[in-house]
Specification:
The complex is a heterodimer of chains A (263) and B (262). Chain A is mostly helical and 263 residues long. Chain A is 85% helix and 0% strand. Chain A contains eleven helices and no strands. The radius of gyration of chain A is 18 Å and the shape is globular. With 262 residues, chain B is an alpha/beta fold. Chain B is 32% helix and 23% strand. In chain B, a hairpin with a 2-residue loop joins strand 1 (10-21) and strand 2. In chain B, helix 6 (185-191) crosses helix 8 (215-234). Chain B is globular and about 50 Å long. Classes of the chains: A mainly alpha (263), B alpha/beta (262). The interface between A and B is medium-sized, with 25 and 23 residues.
Chain lengths: 263, 262
């Protein structure tokens, strides 16, 4: 049993490490709803994976990336606002995913509940490897292009004039978010994954004086949430994702009260 | 136009540029040339396409027709109207500048007389300080072509004077070409080689003295504005106490005989 906990902890810590910088960019660029949309569409990926007999993790990554690219295209080609597009994509992919799952479920034995809320015991060594590969790639991207990404976030036109490849980097960032969400479904679940991206970064922004401090402290807070959350979930037998996110929320609230007191 | 041989290098050439957005014509038939060391000021009513024209020159917008050609390897810089740093993104002035480059930050801060703001938060500085920070960031590019979008907007009169003096200093030091959107006519008169009066198309252009008496200019800006321009040029006071404000396309407020309107 203890090695199951170890896999979950390892996977959670890897994920938390990229949550700081990635979550900070999501908060600054107001991409929270985008994250939600990808998380919801992950269900569609799971269903497709089962129907097509693909590894579920891989199917989710492919479908998330596809949804991300579809959204970018729709944004360019329609007059609809971003939030309307996200709302449509989010809920129609969720609905189709649920439909497909219901049709295919009898044979799979996969529980929807574990997809929605995450399942600590479902993490296998193969998952840890996938998570390690994806988080390493995403971390490398963030480290290499951090300054440009912050510049785009501050003012995309100014960044473009100064020679930053805005469209390319922004697309890559969207794909990176999609991949990270796809791999974290098993740990935190569809409904709660965006929270793990946003809350630690938002908490860190209250105690930071530079973009880099938000990123690093966000990662540390996310890792702390994972450790405390997993331990609590293990000891008192609560759902892992919900416990981790609750710990993160408690951290946010404490820092908010602390910094409000200082002012 | 400047005939000094040092200034004869052509930096930028627009030929018959047109831009549409959502079926609406924003710009049409824009042709302009800019040489090193030259200043062009763009004036025009709200919605005339001034910012769009700057963005075409910068390459942020692609024109629907016409051509934009620049000298090869031209270093250009842009001072936007404003930059709003997102909430939750803590950033001081030094970090903001380092988004563009880590070199010469102290130098450009000193050039813009804002060395004391180096560690101030971008959200805590005043409008006038923000303009200087944006100018400093533009200077990090060591521009050969500097584009300024209403650089002195929102500043009080002494603040405007200071900023325009700073821009004039920078221009003569860097010997860069400047294209600027501005409504401050004393600046236009004192420093500009060429005024370009824009209202979707180029209504008129040329030396400020010529433009100030052009009927299209008079009709676009109203009599009072045109006379202000002429006043600065002729250096003698014959001001009429007119009550008309700057009104795009509206006829001049009183019945002066040369306030033609088409």
């Amino acid at each position: 049993m203890i090695d199951l906990l170890l896999y979950a902890l390892l996977a959670g810590l890897l994920l938390a490490a990229v949550c700081g910088p990635l979550g900070a960019l999501i908060v600054w660029q107001r991409l929270a709803y985008y994250g939600d949309t990808l998380a919801h569409s992950a269900l569609l990926g799971v269903a497709l994976g089962l129907l097509l007999n693909l590894p579920v993790q891989l199917a989710v990554m492919i479908s998330s990336a596809a949804i991300a690219l579809l959204l970018l295209q729709l944004r360019k080609r329609t007059e609809l606002g971003s939030d309307a597009l996200l709302g449509m994509l989010s809920h129609s992919s969720l609905a189709i995913g649920l439909l497909a799952l219901a049709l295919g479920q009898a044979s799979s034995g996969l529980s929807i509940e574990s997809l929605l809320f995450g399942d600590l015991l479902a993490i296998l060594p193969a998952d840890v490897i996938t998570i390690a590969v994806v988080t390493t790639l995403v971390a490398a991207f963030l480290l290499r292009y951090w300054n440009q990404l912050v510049s785009i976030t501050t003012n995309a036109d100014l960044a473009a004039v100064e020679g930053v490849a805005v469209a390319k980097l922004q697309t890559t960032l969207m794909l990176a978010i999609a991949l990270v969400i796809a791999i974290s479904i098993k740990i935190v679940g569809v409904l709660l994954i965006t929270a793990l991206l946003i809350i630690p970064a938002a908490a860190a922004s209250q105690i930071a004086r530079s973009p880099e401090q938000v990123a690093v402290r966000g990662s540390l807070l996310a890792m702390l949430s994972v450790v405390v959350g997993l331990a609590t979930s293990w000891i008192i037998d609560t759902p892992a994702g919900a416990t981790i996110v609750s710990v993160a929320a408690a951290l946010f609230l404490s820092l908010f009260l602390l910094s409000a007191q200082k002012r | 136009m400047n005939t000094d041989p040092n200034h004869s290098v052509e930096l930028l050439r627009l030929e018959q540029v047109a831009l549409q957005r959502g079926g609406q014509v924003l710009l049409q038939d824009i042709t302009l040339h800019l040489h090193a060391g030259e200043i062009i000021t763009i004036i025009g009513p709200n919605g005339a396409g001034k910012t769009s024209l700057l963005k075409i020159i910068l390459g942020l917008y692609q024109p629907d027709s016409g051509t934009v050609s620049k000298r090869k390897g031209l270093r250009q810089a842009w001072m936007p109207q404003r930059v709003v740093v997102p909430t939750g993104l803590p950033m001081d002035v030094a970090r903001f500048l380092s988004l563009a480059s880590n070199d010469r930050i102290d130098a450009v801060l000193a050039d813009c007389a804002i060395a004391h703001l180096k560690h101030s938060s971008m959200n805590a500085i005043s409008g006038g300080e923000m303009q200087r920070v944006l100018l400093a960031r533009a200077l990090l590019q060591e521009p050969e072509l500097l584009l300024l979008d209403e650089p002195a907007q929102g500043l009080d009169l002494p603040g405007q004077d200071d900023l325009y003096r700073l821009i004039a200093d920078i221009r003569s030091r860097l010997q860069c070409g400047v294209i600027m959107v501005s409504h401050d006519l004393h600046w236009v008169m004192a420093q500009t080689d060429n005024v370009l009066c824009l209202n979707q198309h180029i209504c008129c252009h040329g030396h400020p003295k010529i433009v100030s008496t052009h009927p299209q200019f008079v009709s676009m800006f109203g009599e009072r504005h045109a006379q202000t321009l002429a006043l600065y040029q002729h250096q003698h006071n014959h001001s009429h106490d007119l009550h008309g404000d700057i009104t795009a396309g509206a006829p001049a407020p009183d019945g002066h005989e040369h306030c033609s309107h088409d």
